[in-house]
Design goal:
This protein is α/β, with parallel strands linked by helices and 240 residues long. It has 8 helices and 9 strands.
Length: 240
């Protein structure tokens, strides 16, 4: 039987963490859960420890400080490979990704032979709920910009909801991932695609968080915009 792990990176997600874990545990497929917490001052890790007392499939890794989404996921990916998981999922803690859609990502990898399955906001139009129009437009244009600059045949290049087969993560040198913000999501897709792995997008509905605060910043956006150029040049010079 395949071993499945859902990685949830957290920083100050005390308002969401219990509900998102409960929603995943209640799914008809068995998913283990790894919370990678960046030493949240609001007690997120403490809440996870309380839940661990009742559910053996919950695991917790606490890092010393908040130093980027990408670093948190790399930590989680390495942990997953050490524990021999077959399918490794990414999901946000804030319910912007519907936990029920983990079933769709699982099907794409387990039954439809995708090596990387992506929960896509833009595959069938713009499926985003509760975002202001300015942010929707910025996100959609960002994905189009990345697609043009990189040549990736992916509509939602910045998506953070995905499933990797373990062989993809083994092939990518995780220690050489450059980006720490949302550009990390692009870099992982870019490297997986150019290493010849099959990529499948699954249409989902993305709903903005109703609890907690967004971690988006101008620094993260700048990294993504200029990082794409750097990543493209790296590929052209054969150093990907």
């Amino acid at each position: 039987m395949l071993k499945r792990l859902v990685i949830i990176p957290t920083y100050n997600e005390i308002e969401n963490i219990s509900d998102i874990i409960s929603a995943i545990i209640s799914l008809p497929l068995k998913f283990d859960i790894l919370v990678v917490d960046d030493n949240s001052p609001d007690g997120t890790a403490k809440k996870v420890r309380e839940l661990q007392a009742n559910f053996k499939q919950i695991f917790l890794e606490v890092r010393n400080a908040k130093n980027g989404l990408g670093k948190a996921y790399i930590h989680g990916f390495k942990w997953a490979l050490e524990q021999a998981y077959d399918l490794i999922f990414q999901i946000d803690a804030d319910f912007s990704h519907n936990p029920k859609d983990l079933i769709l990502l699982n099907k794409a990898c387990e039954q439809d032979n995708a090596d990387l399955a992506i929960g896509s906001r833009y595959l069938t139009g713009v499926n985003v709920v509760n975002w202001p129009m300015k942010r929707v437009l910025m996100s959609w244009l960002a994905s189009k910009y990345v697609k043009i600059m990189t040549g990736l045949p992916i509509e939602d290049t910045t998506a953070g909801f995905a499933c990797f087969k373990s062989k993809v993560l083994k092939e990518i040198n995780l220690d050489k991932i450059k980006f720490i913000g949302y550009a990390f999501q692009i870099e992982m897709k870019y490297k997986a695609y150019h290493k010849g792995f099959s990529v499948q997008e699954i249409p989902i509905i993305f709903t903005d968080r109703t609890k907690g605060t967004s971690k988006m910043s101008s620094k993260i956006i700048t990294e993504a915009v200029f990082g794409i150029i750097r990543m493209r040049l790296t590929k052209l010079f054969g150093r990907l």
